[in-house]
Amino acid sequence: MDINSLLSPQETPRETPTPTLSAKPPAKKPRKARTSKVAQPSPLANTTLPPPTLPHNAVVQAQHGAVSPSTMSPSSGNRLSATSTPPADGSHTKRQPSTPGMDTLADLASMQHHQQTARANAGGLRSDAIYENPTSSASVLPSLRTMPRPRASSQLRGGSFDVNMSDGPASTPSRRLSTSALSEEELQVVAQSIDYLSSNPFAYESHLQLINLLHRGLLNYTGSQSSSAAPNDAHDYDLLQDLQSARQVMNSRFAMGEDLWADWIDDQILLARSLDDRISIMELCQKAVDEESNSAKLWLKYGNFMLSLYQNANPQDQRIADIGEAPTSHEWSEEDRMMTREVFTWPQVINVWERGTQETSLRLSDSHLVWDTYTQLLLRELASSSLQELIARINYHFITRLQTPHAAWDQTFQAYSNFISQYDNASYEYTMVTANRLGAEAKDKWSRRETFEAAVSRANQRADRDAELKAYGDYIEWELGQSHKKNAFDFPLTSALYQRAVLRFPANTELWEGYAMLLYEEITYRQPEGISVHPILERATRHCPWSGTLWSQHLLAAETSKLPYSDIEDIKHKATSSGLLDAGGMEEVLKVNTAWCGFLRRRAFHQDSTDEEMDVAEVGIRSAIEDMETTGRHKYGKEYQGDPEYRLEKIYIRYLTQSRNWESARKTWTSLILQRGDSYDFWIRYYIWEMNMWSTIAYNENSSSGIGLSKPVEATKVLQQAMKRPKLDWPEKIIELYQYHCEDNEDSQELQSSLFQAWKAKRAVQKRREKEAMEAYEAAQAGALQQQLQAQQDVAATNGDSVNIGKRKREEDLASGDNKKIKPGVAESTETQAEEQQPSVPSLLKRDRENATVVVKNLPASTTEQRLRQYFRDCGTINSLKLTPEADGLSTTASIEFDSKEDVLTAQTKDMKLFDGNAIEVKVGSGSTLYVCNFPPTADEAWMGKKFQKYGEIVDIRFPSLRFNAHRRFCYVQFKSSDDAQAATELDGEDAGGELKLLVKISDPTHKQERHGALYEGREVYLANLAWTATKADVKKAFSKYGKVENVRIPTKVNGSSRGIGFVAFSTKDEAEAALEMNLTMFKNRILNVSMATNDMAKRQANPIITSSSQRSTVSPNPDLASSITNGNAQDMASPTAPAESLNKVHEIQSRTLALMNIPDTVNDARIRALAEPYGELVQLLLRPDHQGAILEYKDVASAGKAALGLEGQEIAPGRNIKTGSVADMKQLKAEHKIDRIVVGSGKPSAALQPAAPIRRPNQLGARRGGKGGLGVKRAGVGLSGDRAKPHGGDIDRGGVMNGDAEENGKAKSNSDFKAMFIKK
């Protein structure tokens, strides 16, 4: 029979009758090496079966209808085959007899249809990361509620739910739910849950919610939850049938869990009236403890129910008086008692309690609840018989218990003491000493676990599920961490702990996986008898049917346990038939298919396998590949690119290789190039496969002939083809492998050719890397400004001043005193545009330090930067490198910043390689840098280091440049490891003094917030040609008629005068647009220009950083004069036409003005003020990052002199000392040019080695004048003799105040006079 016919669309199950085959299975024949019988060797064939329409199970509500047999569940083993047609009545017909091999092939085809249907009808969320997101129960369960599924008809027979398979949706009449036991809101939730489950029958949380609500109604109705309410007969509860049916449906699809079983048993006991009811309860209890065998709660209910039955049937038996629960309240007839005595015997009661004691013995906290009752029963039986055999049995029972750690060990020891004193008093002392010795280890085990048990108990009592899960997690971690070598690890206790955890959290897949791994480890290394993973995984998949990981492990465990093929096939069918796997994405389905196909391949090449088993494997693997491809295309469309790891295809290639069908295997590799051709990992695997094939074929063909091995031509072609891929993710690795391959396997001619091809490929890669770097550079340019301004906005938002300290760039030349006179009525359009040039492109580029840095550990202590730079130079451009010695002095850690992320990938290839004898560790440094803001204005590197040093070793602290915005206040703190940085985030929100709360986050440049604020929301207008005398109040008053004015800003010059421009922010965009009506209107005698504000660097200038005291010691000069002084242009005022009074004021101000130089552009005005104020009262502080300095104006000359001497040489930043001098000296310095990239060869000095400015002391009135001016005065300025001071060759004589001959007519001042002048103060 042709295998392809099983998968052909022309032979669907509804069209083709089942062929009659021989019922006698053929004898197994030795398998021969053969080629594949499949015509198309590629697994990615385009012809696949269209998915048939098989409905899902449905749960709906109806009023009437007779009970009909429901279809079998997938677990029943009776499934539709690929060649059978379901009858109209829903019953199943059996397949005609056939050989086992053909039955298997038909089943495979049938399973393919079921899988396609289930997944086609299951929703699942569309996501780009289909395979990359592992799914936990927490993420799967909520999505089940939103999975759209086809509505399938089902009927409620007598008020109960019935599982019915049909060919299409059918509407059923709904009845109104009513009961006094539930509120209207609760009834509405019940109705909604029933309606939702009719189309989503596998929604676990909806099943759970429905059952709990109906159960609550039953308790309310019978008064079980309230002692004051009058009890009602449970049989009269209106929703009783709905509750029973909901439980049955839930149990048919999911595991019930401890709590649901307990509630079910309680309800059935409440309803029981006849002997049949009691037998049903016993069977229900047995099912519950079979499914949750470790539950003390369920064993107590089971045992107490058996005791209750025995007490009612045997009221005269004193052995069980006052033990267990009281007998049922309703009257028993004598006939009931007689029949119950025949069914429920004393040995049965003892057997239930004995089994419960054994199953719960390792529940350390509550096992005594079951054990104590069982012990009481044994002692009562002993009291009535006093058999010596029973005494020995009970003695062994006590000794065993005392050697088991449990919470009630002391009570157990006391009970044993009473037992021995009564039945073996002669040897009491010896027996008790021996018992105490035997129980010492158990007591020690309990004492070491008591803290964890208490934490679990407290969380359970508080009903805090999260705390309880964490307590179990900590407990398990501690158990797993115990040493095996010292015999501290206790496998039985750890296994029991896992059982308790999964009992409390049955839907937690991580707990089930951890439990399975524990068993795998025990079986692998210690090989104990009686331990099997299969039963645990069977429970796990019933509790978590959405986990592909658990199903795949279940399949593997079944194979390892050597279960029959039909059982393993049934497991796979259960996994894929419900559609729950799709809730976790394609990855969960793929895990199951991978495990299934791996099993088929191993089975096909087992030493006893047959040709039919090989056919089954080939069809099964190809069917799985085609099924996954079809399902992926159906669900995700063109976005679906297949499995990135091509797991099924690799299994198929392995199958074809073992079948010696090498050409088909090679075609399969070729078919994968389209989707996987840009992965170097794919090409390396392909190359290794070709080399294996070459070695196998070459040795087999040439070993007998004695001819040398042929060249691996196909392997060489693979590498050549890989090098031609323009988007290969790691072409350098392929080129390197190609060179090694040719050197080892090719002749000289091919080797020579490979050199050229490798050289050509390297050049292409180099150009590609340059292009990628340029694209990254341009992308960074586009986003650098936005990221920088966003950080400022975060700071401003935290401080509550987001309007005034927003995203606006400050002027580059803060001291610009341009004072052009503009005639009234002329628009000031060109002045503001020309005042500031756009910052250069490189200044806007923000390097991606966080993602382009690697941390290199275990370097030798003697490592130098040059040696390390040479070692990593082939990885890419190194921007910065910093070495940090370890505390032990034996090694060094380096932080290396590369130019791009691609360089980091290359650097990682050196991980664990030798560097001067040490195996170094190279890790990506991402996540090790903190973004910190909202700290005190005076905080510096030392403050940051002290604040963060307790969390780990700090590699670097970086403050931003204030050149373009002196209001910026944030920094970056880089740790040696990401763990240290993560720990330091606990400072986020810490009080930093005043109203400041620290903001500490992991720096991630890839996550940028969208800009917002008045400018970016279109709520701000720009005013040009604004009157010089216009104030904020004037502007606000003029524009308030258009809407609510949130803020008005009028940028000013250094001297405090208006720039003639302004910004007005409104509350809405419409208000701002309405304000455009003011354009070209007269305002304060000038024609006003109004337009929408834009993010233009030249327009959006802010005020210079000037901080002034309330009053000066003298009256301030006019703005033009003050501007000239602060800009070092006092010579402009030394003209013959300048009034004497103005010159006196200029000289007086410059004598108490001081310039600080060599100030890093990362230092703000607050830090400078903190250094300067101890020397005297400041009148004005002007920050000049554009000249690496700041200007200080003191209230008196003495303070300026003290500051000049005191601040000279002080360290303002690591490696930067302050220089004092005049404003003119400072103006000669250019803006700081930082070079923090490593320069190879000659280059400019680093920013930390800026040239020191000459030291200048402030000139005094009447002091001797040389060729240089004083503070704020250029050479040959005011008071100097010379032609430059006297344009017409004459002296300036203004009452003897400033005479050029002062030095000749009076006594020259000395340094002693200079010092004495302010010491007298």
TrEMBL record:
<dbReference type="GO" id="GO:0008380">
    <property type="term" value="P:RNA splicing"/>
</dbReference>
<keyword id="KW-0507">mRNA processing</keyword>
<dbReference type="InterPro" id="IPR012677">
    <property type="entry name" value="Nucleotide-bd_a/b_plait_sf"/>
</dbReference>
<feature type="region of interest" description="Disordered">
    <location>
        <begin position="792"/>
        <end position="849"/>
    </location>
</feature>
<dbReference type="InterPro" id="IPR031766">
    <property type="entry name" value="RRM_occluded"/>
</dbReference>
<dbReference type="GO" id="GO:0006397">
    <property type="term" value="P:mRNA processing"/>
</dbReference>
<dbReference type="InterPro" id="IPR011990">
    <property type="entry name" value="TPR-like_helical_dom_sf"/>
</dbReference>
<feature type="compositionally biased region" description="Basic residues">
    <location>
        <begin position="26"/>
        <end position="35"/>
    </location>
</feature>
<dbReference type="InterPro" id="IPR035979">
    <property type="entry name" value="RBD_domain_sf"/>
</dbReference>
<feature type="region of interest" description="Disordered">
    <location>
        <begin position="1"/>
        <end position="104"/>
    </location>
</feature>
<feature type="region of interest" description="Disordered">
    <location>
        <begin position="111"/>
        <end position="130"/>
    </location>
</feature>
<keyword id="KW-0677">Repeat</keyword>
<dbReference type="GO" id="GO:0003723">
    <property type="term" value="F:RNA binding"/>
</dbReference>
<dbReference type="InterPro" id="IPR003107">
    <property type="entry name" value="HAT"/>
</dbReference>
<feature type="domain" description="RRM">
    <location>
        <begin position="1019"/>
        <end position="1095"/>
    </location>
</feature>
<feature type="compositionally biased region" description="Low complexity">
    <location>
        <begin position="827"/>
        <end position="838"/>
    </location>
</feature>
<dbReference type="InterPro" id="IPR000504">
    <property type="entry name" value="RRM_dom"/>
</dbReference>
<feature type="domain" description="RRM">
    <location>
        <begin position="852"/>
        <end position="927"/>
    </location>
</feature>
<dbReference type="Pfam" id="PF00076">
    <property type="entry name" value="RRM_1"/>
</dbReference>
<feature type="domain" description="RRM">
    <location>
        <begin position="928"/>
        <end position="1005"/>
    </location>
</feature>
<feature type="region of interest" description="Disordered">
    <location>
        <begin position="1258"/>
        <end position="1321"/>
    </location>
</feature>
<dbReference type="InterPro" id="IPR034397">
    <property type="entry name" value="Prp24_RRM1"/>
</dbReference>
<feature type="compositionally biased region" description="Low complexity">
    <location>
        <begin position="9"/>
        <end position="25"/>
    </location>
</feature>
<comment type="function">
    <text>Functions as a recycling factor of the spliceosome, a machinery that forms on each precursor-messenger RNA (pre-mRNA) and catalyzes the removal of introns. Chaperones the re-annealing of U4 and U6 snRNAs (small nuclear RNAs) released from previous rounds of splicing, an initial step in reforming the U4/U6-U5 tri-snRNP (small nuclear ribonucleoprotein) that can reassemble into another spliceosome complex; this step involves binding U6 and facilitating the unwinding of the U6 internal stem loop, followed by base-pairing of U6 to U4.</text>
</comment>
<keyword id="KW-0539">Nucleus</keyword>
<feature type="domain" description="RRM">
    <location>
        <begin position="1152"/>
        <end position="1225"/>
    </location>
</feature>
<keyword id="KW-0508">mRNA splicing</keyword>
<feature type="compositionally biased region" description="Polar residues">
    <location>
        <begin position="68"/>
        <end position="86"/>
    </location>
</feature>
<feature type="compositionally biased region" description="Basic and acidic residues">
    <location>
        <begin position="809"/>
        <end position="821"/>
    </location>
</feature>
<dbReference type="GO" id="GO:0005688">
    <property type="term" value="C:U6 snRNP"/>
</dbReference>
<protein>
    <recommendedName>
        <fullName>U4/U6 snRNA-associated-splicing factor PRP24</fullName>
    </recommendedName>
</protein>
<dbReference type="Pfam" id="PF16842">
    <property type="entry name" value="RRM_occluded"/>
</dbReference>
<feature type="compositionally biased region" description="Basic and acidic residues">
    <location>
        <begin position="1283"/>
        <end position="1294"/>
    </location>
</feature>
<keyword id="KW-0694">RNA-binding</keyword>
<feature type="region of interest" description="Disordered">
    <location>
        <begin position="136"/>
        <end position="176"/>
    </location>
</feature>
